[in-house]
Specification:
Layout: E1 6-13, H1 18-36, E2 41-49, E3 52-60, H2 67-81, E4 84-85, E5 88-89, E6 94-101, H3 104-110, E7 126-133, H4 142-159, E8 166-179, E9 182-195, H5 201-215, E10 227-229, E11 245-246, H6 251-254, H7 275-292, E12 298-305, E13 314-318, H8 327-337, H9 342-349, H10 383-390
Parallel strand pairs: 3-6, 9-10
Antiparallel strand pairs: 1-8, 2-3, 2-11, 4-5, 7-12, 8-9, 12-13
Helix pairs in contact: 1-2, 4-5, 7-9, 8-10
Length: 391
Amino acid sequence: MTRQSYLFTSESVSEGHPDKVCDRISDAIVDTYLAVDPDSRVAVETLTTTNKVVLAGEVRCAGSVTKETLIAAARRAIKDIGYEQDGFHHATADIECLVHEQSVDIAQGVDADGDKEKDEGAGDQGIMFGYACRETDVLMPAPIHYSHKILQNMAKARHDGSCPEFGPDAKSQVTLAYENGVPVRATSVVVSTQHSEGTDQAVLREKVRGFIEGVLPEGWMCPDEELYVNPTGRFVIGGPDGDAGLTGRKIIVDTYGGAAPHGGGAFSGKDSTKVDRSAAYASRYLAKNIVAAELANKCTLQLSYAIGVSKPLSIYVDLHGTGNVDESKLETVLMEVMDLSPRGIREHLALTKPIFERTAAYGHFGRTPDADGGFSWERTDLVDQLKSAIS
């Protein structure tokens, strides 16, 4: 029997967290290539440490993108985040670019040999999960949703100058109490934020409290003794100067905060032939549309792929006992309403556009679709089709 009363916790990290700096740079490079050639193949990793950035990976692009262009993209990303401290500065950081051409062995399994009618194979094997639930209006689990929102609002205040004492690096953690399977209040909240030298911690605590109260529903605020703001007492040295960062180390932050399974593949730095990214987006898209169509209150969906094979090897749907449709029938219907080959996903969600840098912080899911096609996987435009197909 599923537990109905429990505590559940999720964390988020800000755009200035060392790992998120790397995700941002890697996705800036993806967008740089896609802006030149929508069919670019990109798999780029970033390492950061004290005033040092290393770019590595493999790419293929029909146009010309120089190493100087990639280095400039990295500097711009660092500047946009707001790093201008002695140990990590967009203007002075030593940026080393080791990006090279894609392996022909990988290319031959993925490419359609110029045949636009031939399906392309998946860029790798793997399993991908999507999830949606009714805990929030964006159909995301509440703990990760509120964790993201706290840091997003703090970052906005830092960027607009209303909270200049905030630094780029920050983390949040929200624990919610569930009763009858529904979140009802926060029992504890943790926020650690980088700050300027000499900042009064008591004043900082009250400022952070305001952001938390502004995000949580009315009456949900945790007890004062369970509010932890900079529990170590000081957080001046932050970002890559305080800890090394790597692309792809925050996969649970990027997805559902631990409320759903994860296939293990990271997103940032990869073009959409990599099913780690595109099929995870498609899984979220389908799960969200299932819940939005009121076919269930909660949905977990899994897809699996093999390198060089275009069709998914399996599709699995779990409605957690909340559905009003047969799950096996729904699995068949989903294959009918969307082409789940790598090319089909890319075309349906328009994933060849330079739209990925904006995904690098505050979650890839639960976001608002942009007019230019960003976050297309958050649309609910399959609702009518699903209702019709399942009836």
